[in-house]
Amino acid sequence: YLPIRKSQYVNVYNSTFSYNLADGFGAGIRNINNITVNMSYFINNHAKGFGGGFYSYGTSYVYNSYFYNNSAKYSGAVTNYNPGNMTLFNGTFINNTAEHGGALLNYGNANITYSNFINNTANLSNGGAIFNENYGSVNIAYSNFTFNNATESGGAIYAKNCNITSSTLINNTAKNGGAIRLLSDSEVNTC
Predict the structure, then answer these.
(1) Residues 6 or more apart from 180 whose CB is under 8 A from it?
(2) What is the separation, in whole angstroms, between the first and last Cα of the chain?
């Protein structure tokens, strides 16, 4: 577990976070300031609250990283909480599980590009791969969503204030919106 506090800037490179447990937030990393994570692995972590692998309400840049089999009550792998700003590039999310937001929950501002979400599950509610609500705003581009599942809505994505561009969604399932359940202020282009 790596806590990032105020007035710190941290670079995490080629690191592995596995089998960590948090009673609250971010079993692998909890960031409240500025962090860059590159070429790192988050495997089999669990948080009783938010963000099984990674939790941030600061500024975060996550590049070329892998999230496998993480779990939490909310957002199995990654949480970006208001007023957090997250840039996620070339992320891989496989077999992450939470009540909602199987892989990622966003209540801040997030930009997600060239990422893959495979077999993630919201086992009680919405957003098998991504859950974006409250004050959250998310832009998704050039990303793939396959075999994600939500018990209620948005097998891959459940979101408001969301723009999805040039992405592929295949074999995702939910009671409502097998691939996507969009709320207000959202747009889908070239999917």
Answers:
(1) 154, 156, 157, 158, 159, 164, 169, 188
(2) 37
Residue-wise DSSP of 73-135: EE-SSEEE-TT-EEEEES-EEES-EESB-SSEEESSEEEEES-EEES-EESSSS-SSEEE-TT
Instruction: Report the distance separating Cα 46 and Cα 34, nearest Å.
Output: 23
Residue that has been written with the tokens 């409240």 in this structure: 32
Cis peptide leading into residue 3 (ω within 30°): no
Residue with tokens 């561009």: 165
pLDDT tens-place string over residues 79-89: 999 999 999 99
- Give residue 130's identity as a one-letter amino acid code: I
Alpha carbon distances (Å) from 24 to 1, 111, 143, 178: 12, 25, 30, 31
How much is the pTM?
A: 0.95
pLDDT in tens, 149-170: 999 999 999 999 999 999 999 9
